[in-house]
User: What shape does this take?
Amino acid sequence: MLRLFIKSRGRYLELALLVILLNLFISFAVVWYSNTPSEISRTSVQDSRLLLSVDISGETAQASESPVSNTVPIRDNEVIKPKQINPSEVKSEVPKDVPMSSKEKIKIDTRLGVFDKFRKFQSHMFSVVGEAWSVLSSSRALCLGAQTSVDRLYELVELVKNWSGPMSIAVFVPDIELAVGLRYIQYLRSCNLAIERQVSFHLIYPVEHQGTTNHPDLQGLDEVVGNMDCKQPKQVLKFLLNVRSKEMLAWRESYPYPQNLLRNLAKNGCQTNYTYIPDIDMVPTPGMDIQLETFLEKQEKKNNCSKCAYVIPTYEISINSTHLPSNKTELLQFVKDKQARQFHQALYSINQKSSNLKKWEKIPETEEIDIAYKVEKYIFKYEPLYIARGDTPAFDERFIGFGMTRNTQVYEMYVAGYSFYLLNNAFTNHWGFQSLKTRPQWRARQQEQNNARFDEFAKEVSAHYNADPYKMLDQLKKMNLKHVKVAYGTSKKNITTAVKKVLDEPSIKVP
Assistant: This one.
């Protein structure tokens, strides 16, 4: 009996041990199976984040459907270091398997254009937004804002080569040029990664020649443009502009170009603390934008000046030159060899007279951009290119066409108490020597009309700031700008004594 009990007890123990082992095995299996999906999911998330953080370059950028797909995720309080665009990343041709006509077209609704204050023009801000626009605008101190008519938009290709920060471009697109502009912007973005990432576009047209996006002559144009060589942006634009009729060309060339409205839109589009507003054909030197970022950061820590304008000289470069000078040392050699000269030196030398560029040219190049000297004398009609905070006075939009556009804005800055400082190394290049021979009659007439508007402007500025440091109000009658005749072409008989009085007007020393 005892032997049977012991034998039976042993079986029970074996069975109990087997149950325990089975439970352990089941528990292990459950834990293993429950962990496996989460690991796979976690791996998938990591892989997904990795894919999202890879900058799209080369031909793969063509397949991008959303700005998220080529934007680096941003964490709170993270300092953004924007990516430099390498020339090798610029696409040489449109991929044949992704024709432009198959991509989503850039569209705007002309019924939603915003009027200017005179209700003569309508604008569409941010018609196209650069895919890295928000990242660049939040990480950079400086934005470049430029204006252009659509027939000069090809200049953007050269401009963007030397600028890696955000760019705000205002384009004048009357009538069918709106349709041309939309297609050409899409062509540029398809061909050039830097333009696709950095540039935002704003489109403007006159009310009396409202922009149009549809026209019988445009049928099939998208397919043609989508297969054009990316290495020939100027020729592509010329081809597109052939859709303009003879009737349009009859009024288009001499139509008053709203420079100051365009400059304001380009400037207002910039979302950085500082702005730089050149024309689209004024090309900065390589690396200048990064050096300016460092300079502005130091100035913020040093004195945080709210009414300082940092002047960047502009030089005309002979069309016989093989390239643009890339640094100050090379520029000075160009000047010595008569391959470069001060901007408007022959056409309108007073333009940069206050900068005293002869003095600037004697200062040797240094490793870093810094202040060279302060402008000691403001001379009427001074119109430098400069970097300043974004809250500088607006360009006065009553001045339409040519004449009194930039210089009136600088005059208001002077009355408002701004100081101007020349930077030692920075400068921009402008292709070609300009002369009086290139000025057409219609442009001279526009300048005369703007001259006649200056008296009212000067009185308004003096009243607004309760200041008249140039004693302008006392000089208006003497200058007699309303009756000044402006020369054009090769004729000099139109230059009156009044013009000479304006050019020779004595400067007043800045306090």
